Amino acid sequence: MSPVKVFGHPMSTNVVRVLLCLEEVGAQYELVPVDFLAGQQNDPQHVQLNPFGKIPAFQDGDLVLFESRAIAKYILRKHRTNDLDLLKENSSIEEAAMVDVWTEVESQQYYPAISPVVFECIIFPIMRGTTANQEVIDGSLERLKKVLEIYEARLEKSRYLAGDSISFADINHFPFTFYFMATPYAPVFDGYPKVKAWWEGLMARPAVKKVCANMPTEF
Amino acid sequence: MSPVKVFGHPMSTNVVRVLLCLEEVGAQYELVPVDFLAGQQNDPQHVQLNPFGKIPAFQDGDLVLFESRAIAKYILRKHRTNDLDLLKENSSIEEAAMVDVWTEVESQQYYPAISPVVFECIIFPIMRGTTANQEVIDGSLERLKKVLEIYEARLEKSRYLAGDSISFADINHFPFTFYFMATPYAPVFDGYPKVKAWWEGLMARPAVKKVCANMPTEF
Q1: Chain A / chain B CB contacts < 8 angstroms
Q2: Domain architecture of chain B: domains with CATH
Q3: Of A74, A98, A101, which has the smallest distance from its Cβ to B97's Cβ?
Q4: Which residue from A74, A80, A176, A214 could staple onto B97, CB 3.0 to 4.6 Å apart?
Q5: What is the ipTM of this complex?
């Protein structure tokens, strides 16, 4: 059986989300380079895979998927075992619901709060050659602190976001948090010791270490 | 067994997402009013249910959930039968993945394109007393047209977004599209006949009609 294909760039946060899931489940895969800095995501052969012209796209035999969160869930379902069920869908609908809640929290609350700092400090300088807008960063940090306060309270009650075992909800936080930690604002996390320990626990995972190796933080 | 409780306001798009799922599966529920125009989502008793101070929150016995997409999935899983499986998780991981793909497309591509028109024309005037910003609307419509073009191509291939039967991916488009259709820009959809027919099909569903009855479009 030929390995699945991920079409994208290993620096992209959305591609990283997919690669991390593949590494967590120990799946074989091939990363087919799409140079988004050169605009290759708009080339006709990529648009055939992802009609929105974004990375990643994903292929498993005849099945073609896009949208990184959807691809990630497919990978986790395909490779789930009794010991490895990061969506907790084999456990109970209540446990699966907690994974969904904190996965949505990442998408709707955490990402909008943390991503502007990463865009201003890392992504826009690379893609557009701009310098960071301090006003945007300050607003983003204020919002992030409110979110981290809620995370701190949550992680006082359970070891991971969706309960006492790790889930997709946790690892889903990796891509943007990793780049945030490469900005001058990383010390913000020091004010939230449970969150900091949770993050350090994520960083210690072998799958995370493997994906990190291809994510440059100095440009 | 006491019915589940939805804490929110029947005008809110995120509350509507949850109510629509409850109506689709025929579940009993109680809507506990939280007046977001009066800021009640920040009252301590609501923040206990949803730490981010947003609506909706949801309670089923001891289980408390927030984030409307997560609540919706819980409801659809709890009430799924062989004939009614709007997440298609009982079908195959490939079919479930297509539901996830087009659910994420709604969240990441469709919502960002359509929502500014709804915010400018309906939501901000009610909540902030502002008048619509035409520049924002024009940018949003340009973006929306590109998205609708991709939807049109998709709906030429399959009757619904995730395949030939309806799924959560389709009904998830209801709340914002409903309000968009109450703006002067509704005729934009006339340029996309497959999308228009798909939308009219959604509007004809009994569950949709029931939820619509509590969504005012004139203020």
Answers
A1: 78
A2: 4-78 (3.40.30.10), 93-211 (1.20.1050.10)
A3: A74
A4: A74
A5: 0.94
